[in-house]
Each structure stands twice: as structure tokens, then as C-alpha cells.
């Protein structure tokens, strides 16, 4: 079940476990998802944004059409702040940086995404190294844009795929973890009714 971080009459903030879909997929076997689980407790809950099935961490849901509209506009305008924690293969030569590589769907290998300087949509990720180990590093990742698989593809393109990534890593880093080591640990957003800035955090589970 999701971990409930905060709720009021307008919003609910939860931390999604890894392996759970954000919304239903195609087929009877893909109907269980975070949104439906939250609706069991908050029947009017509406999804505002998503996380990959393999990613854990913070999501905000709206409890009315009005708050859903407000939050959706905030995300479109890139107002919310998001920070992820990840463990990546190898040790980067720099301590921090910005990745600007346009992305698009790899139509022959969906749902994989690829870098495409011609047809890709702009994608920007800021990153910084927290800690280094012998053959891997712990990093903070802050997506400025919100493209599908953005953090995963950007880390791969940098030469440091996320450990446990079944799509973009290679051995031995795929089997080094039984899950994708990517967690949405911080979310900042304006309350859709009061306008107050609110910060939410979820401890990294790895």
C-alpha cells in the first residue's frame, strides 16, 4: 500500500512503492495501481502526475476538479520542485552538472525512450553527487522538465545508468538490485487553494 504523507480537503500526498503502476495499464493484470488504491480511502482522488512503475516516491493527487486543474497548470508551468535520489553505475568525473538532451519514444522498443536531437522534445536534468563507492555513486537528480524515463535515459547517456534499470543499464548493474534504485524523495508545490508553498519528503528506502 502507498505511504500516506499528507492530506486535507483538497489534496493527498503519498509515497508510491516500487513496482506499482501509477495509473491502470492495458489488460486485466494491470488494473491494480496507486490511483485506485488511493481512491479506496479518498474516492474523489485524481492523478496529477505519474512515476514510472519501477520508481518509488512522492506523488500528489487532487481531490476535486478545481484542485486538479490548479495542480495540472502548476506542473505544466514547471512550478513544483522535484528531487530524486538514485544510485548510478560508476563514479562521475564531476561533482555536479546539467544534462540537456532531447528525448522521444523509441517506437520500435516501447516504452523505451531515446535521445534524438532532431525529433526529440527538450529535456533538462540537474544532478549532483552525494557519495561515491567503489563502482557506483549516490546522486541527487532534479528534473527541470518531466519527460517519460527522463532521469533514466539521461543517466544512461552520461555513461552512468541507474542501478537495477532493466531498460537502460547493463550487467552487472541490472542484477545488482532487485529494483530500480530511483526514489522521488522531495516534492514542493503551491497549495491549490491557499497558495501556500508546501514541501514534502519521503526517506530514500535504499
Describe this structure in words.
The protein is mostly beta strands and 206 residues long. The protein folds into two domains: 3-79, Pseudouridine synthase, CATH 3.30.2350.10; 83-182, 2-Layer Sandwich (Pseudouridine synthase), CATH 3.30.2350.10. Helices cover 14% and strands 34% of the residues. It is built from three helices and twelve strands, in the order ββαββαββββββαββ. Strands 1, 2, 3, 4, 5, 6, 9, 10, 11 and 12 form a ten-stranded mixed beta sheet that branches. A hairpin with a 6-residue loop joins strand 11 and strand 12. The chain is globular, with a radius of gyration of 17 Å.
What is the overall pLDDT average?
A: 96
User: Low-confidence segments, ≥5 residues, pLDDT <50?
Assistant: none
- Look at the structure and name the CATH superfamily of the largest domain: Pseudouridine synthase
The percentage of residues in β strands lies in 25-35%
Structural class: mainly beta
Largest β sheet strand count, sense and barrel closure = 10 strands, mixed
Topology, number of strands: 12
Report the end-to-end length measured between terminal Cα atoms: 18 Å
Per the CATH scheme, the topology name of the largest domain is Pseudouridine synthase
Second-tier CATH architecture of the largest domain: 2-Layer Sandwich
Task: Briefly say what this structure is.
With 206 residues, the protein is mainly β. It has helices at residues 34-41, 65-76, 150-157, and strands spanning 3-7, 11-16, 46-47, 56-62, 81-89, 96-100, 103-105, 113-115, 124-132, 136-143, 182-190, 197-201.
